[in-house]
C-alpha cells in the first residue's frame, strides 16, 4: 500500500462576478487521508490492529475532514473580507491542520518489524544520537520518560535543530507541532501520547506503551529526514 | 458531597456512591474499574507522595488546588490535586437511571439563564464536544448566574472563581473503552442517562448559601 498525500483541486462554490468581468476563480486545495504503508495489524503486538484502524480511519480522518471544512470557511471569510471570522477560524485550523500533519508523520515513523521497524539507526543519525544522548538506549529512556510525563494529551519528539545542528527531545501539548517549541526544529520521530493512541491495548499504563512502541519505530525514515536536513 | 468545595484533607480515594457496574449499560463496569480504580487512585496516591514533607502536606485539598494553580502558572502538585478533586466530583455528578430534564427550581434557573433546558443542553454539549484534547465541561454558578464552562486538562471552576455544579470528564480515558473516538455519543449518553440532578441541586443550595454568607 503506497503512501500518498492526495491534494485535489476544488473550486470555490461561489464565483464572483461584476457586471463586466470575472473577479475571482479560486480553487482551494483540500486534503485527504494518506494511506498507511502497511496493514493495520502489521505493527502487532506493539500496537494492536484495532488501535491502528480506529486511530487512522476515525481520529486522523476527523482531523482531515475538519481541516478541510475550516479551510473552506477561511476561504469564504477571506473573500468576504471578514477579518474577525478569519481570526476566529485560526484555532480550528491549528488543531485540525496540525493533527493531520502530525499523524501523517507518525504513520511514517512506524514500520512493521519485517520492514525494519525497531532496527537501530545507522549512519549519521546513529552517530548523532550517540553523541547527544550517549547511546540509543539513553535517547529511548529520555523520550519515554518525557512522553510518560506529558499531562493530558500531546506528543514526544526527537527533533533536529537545523540552526544549532543538534538533536533535541521535547514534548508538545495537544496537536501543537514541534515547531511551536522552536522555529528551527524539524521533527524526526514523533510519538503520539494522546490516550487514543494506546488506551484500548495498554489502558492507563502509558509507560508500557512507550516501552513497546520502540519495537516498531522506523529509524530509516528518521535517518532520511536527518540526512536531507543536514545537507 | 453536598458542598461544592468539600474538603478532603486526608486525600482519600472515595468510592463512587454506587457499585462499579451500576451505571451499565451507559458506562461500563470495565470503565469504572479503570477510571476510578486506576486513574483516580493514581491521582490520590501520587498527590500524597508529592506533598509529603512539603508545606502543602496536610492542607485541605481545595487549598492545595488554589495554591498550586498559581494564577495559571501551574505548580507540580496541581495536576494530581485538581484531578483528585475533579474525579470525586464527577462520580457524584452521576447516578444510575439518571439524566434527562431536571424539575423545580433547577429547571427554572436553567430556563432563566439559558432560555430553555434544550438551549442549556446544546451549550453544555458543545462545550464538552469542543474542549480540544483532555479536559472537562461544567455547569457552574457565579454571581447568581448559571453558566457553562469548559476547561483543559485538570483545570476546574474553583480556580476560575465559580462554584462547580455538574461536570463531565472528556479526557479520552473517560469514554474510550465504551465509545472509542465517539465523544458526541458519550456526551449524549451522559446527558440522557447519567446526570444526577439531585447532586446538582444540593450543590446549588450550598453555592447559594456560601455566596450569601460572604455577601
UniProtKB/TrEMBL annotation, chain A:
InterPro entries: Fe/Mn_Superoxide_Dismutase, Mn/Fe_SOD, Mn/Fe_SOD_BS, Mn/Fe_SOD_C, Mn/Fe_SOD_N, Mn/Fe_SOD_N_sf, SOD_C_sf. It is an enzyme of class 1 (oxidoreductase). The keyword Oxidoreductase applies. Residues 30-111 form the Manganese/iron superoxide dismutase N-terminal domain. It is found in: Mitochondrion. Belongs to the iron/manganese superoxide dismutase family. This is Superoxide dismutase.
TrEMBL record, chain B:
It is an enzyme of class 1 (oxidoreductase). PROSITE patterns: SOD_MN. Keywords: Metal-binding, Oxidoreductase. Its cofactor is Fe cation. Residues 102-203 form the Manganese/iron superoxide dismutase C-terminal domain. Its EC number is 1.15.1.1. The keyword Metal-binding applies. Residues 11-95 form the Manganese/iron superoxide dismutase N-terminal domain. SUPFAM superfamilies: Fe,Mn superoxide dismutase (SOD), C-terminal domain, Fe,Mn superoxide dismutase (SOD), N-terminal domain. It catalyses: 2 superoxide + 2 H(+) = H2O2 + O2. Signal peptide: none annotated. Pfam families: Sod_Fe_C, Sod_Fe_N. Belongs to the iron/manganese superoxide dismutase family. Destroys radicals which are normally produced within the cells and which are toxic to biological systems. This is Superoxide dismutase. The gene is LOC104717759.
Amino acid at each position: 500500500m503506497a503512501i500518498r498525500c492526495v491534494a485535489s483541486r476544488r473550486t470555490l462554490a461561489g464565483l464572483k462576478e461584476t457586471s463586466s468581468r470575472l473577479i475571482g476563480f479560486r480553487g482551494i486545495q483540500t486534503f485527504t487521508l494518506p494511506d498507511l504503508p502497511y496493514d493495520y495489524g502489521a505493527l502487532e503486538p506493539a500496537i494492536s490492529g484495532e488501535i491502528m484502524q480506529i486511530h487512522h480511519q476515525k481520529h486522523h480522518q476527523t482531523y482531515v475532514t475538519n481541516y478541510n471544512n475550516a479551510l473552506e470557511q477561511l476561504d469564504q471569510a477571506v473573500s468576504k473580507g471578514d477579518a474577525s471570522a478569519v481570526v476566529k477560524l485560526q484555532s480550528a485550523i491549528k488543531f485540525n491542520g496540525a493533527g493531520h500533519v502530525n499523524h501523517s508523520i507518525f504513520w511514517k515513523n512506524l514500520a512493521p518489524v519485517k520492514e525494519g521497524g525497531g532496527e537501530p539507526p545507522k549512519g549519521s543519525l546513529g552517530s548523532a544520537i550517540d553523541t547527544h544522548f550517549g547511546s540509543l538506549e539513553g535517547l529511548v529512556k529520555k523520550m519515554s520518560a518525557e512522553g510518560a510525563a506529558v499531562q493530558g494529551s500531546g506528543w514526544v519528539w526527537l527533533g533536529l535543530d537545523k540552526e544549532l545542528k543538534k538533536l533535541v527531545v521535547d514534548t508538545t501539548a495537544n496537536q501543537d507541532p514541534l515547531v511551536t517549541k522552536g522555529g528551527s526544529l524539524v521533527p524526526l520521530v514523533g510519538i503520539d501520547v494522546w490516550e487514543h493512541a494506546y488506551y484500548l491495548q495498554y489502558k492507563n499504563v502509558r509507560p508500557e506503551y512507550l516501552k513497546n512502541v520502540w519495537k516498531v519505530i522506523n529509524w530509516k525514515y528518521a535517518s532520511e529526514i536527518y540526512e536531507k536536513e543536514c545537507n | 458531597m453536598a458542598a461544592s468545595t468539600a474538603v478532603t484533607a486526608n486525600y482519600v480515594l472515595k468510592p463512587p456512591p454506587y457499585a462499579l457496574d451500576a451505571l451499565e449499560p451507559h458506562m461500563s463496569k470495565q470503565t469504572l474499574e479503570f477510571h476510578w480504580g486506576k486513574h483516580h487512585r493514581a491521582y490520590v496516591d501520587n498527590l500524597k507522595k508529592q506533598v509529603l514533607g512539603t508545606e502543602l502536606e496536610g492542607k485541605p485539598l481545595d487549598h492545595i488546588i488554589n495554591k498550586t494553580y498559581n494564577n495559571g502558572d501551574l505548580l507540580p502538585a496541581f495536576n494530581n490535586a485538581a484531578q483528585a478533586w475533579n474525579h470525586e466530583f464527577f462520580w457524584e455528578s452521576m447516578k444510575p437511571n439518571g439524566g434527562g430534564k431536571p424539575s423545580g427550581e433547577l429547571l427554572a434557573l436553567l430556563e432563566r439563564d439559558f432560555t430553555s433546558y434544550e438551549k442549556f443542553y446544546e451549550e453544555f454539549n458543545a462545550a464538552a464536544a469542543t474542549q480540544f484534547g483532555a479536559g472537562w465541561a461544567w455547569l457552574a454558578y457565579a454571581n447568581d448566574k448559571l453558566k457553562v464552562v469548559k476547561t483543559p486538562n485538570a483545570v476546574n471552576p474553583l480556580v476560575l472563581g465559580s462554584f462547580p455544579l455538574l461536570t463531565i470528564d472528556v479526557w479520552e480515558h473517560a469514554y474510550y473503552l465504551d465509545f472509542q473516538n465517539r465523544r458526541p455519543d458519550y456526551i449524549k449518553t451522559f446527558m440522557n442517562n447519567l446526570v444526577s440532578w439531585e447532586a446538582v441541586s444540593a450543590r446549588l443550595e450550598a453555592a447559594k448559601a456560601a455566596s450569601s454568607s460572604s455577601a
